Amino acid sequence: MSDNYLINLYNKTRMLPAGKIIFSRLFARKAPYFTTIKPYVAELRPHFCEVHFKKHKGVENHIGTVHVIAIANGLECAMGACAEASIPSHLRWIPKGMDLRYTAKANSDIRVTAEIDPNSWGANQNVDVIVKAMRNDDEVVVEGTINLWVTEKPKRKA
Q1: Predicted local confidence at residue 105, as pLDDT
Q2: Is 71 exposed, middle or buried, given 0-12, 13-18 or 19+ CB atoms closer than 10 A?
Q3: 5-152, what's its fold?
């Protein structure tokens, strides 16, 4: 059993029938904007997360491809799960920015990944999360970095 609440929740729910769907819905409610893409957390472990979402009318742009803002939402969803599943318990994080490159048309369902170097955690520093979004044919459609600012959690008053 991990000491990380999100990993524990993921491991408990995935043992249930439709457990990954249950976990994905619970996680998406943490930041309700995530629900707009209907994310499915396919894999979660410390320093890595993979999220899938379907191409549907609600995420398409005027030319019928997946809108890059929907993809950025998926990337941020995967980053958030990855960060929460990875960060040492005495630290907290907040996103500072993202640098994304659009590399191809997103004309299918989307798979996004987020990865963090395990050695990058420390107080009062930036942590880069490497993010990628791929089509069904594994062509990368968006790639980049989401930058986190990491600090110590405030001491609790007695």
Answers
A1: 96
A2: buried
A3: Thiol Ester Dehydrase; Chain A (3.10.129)
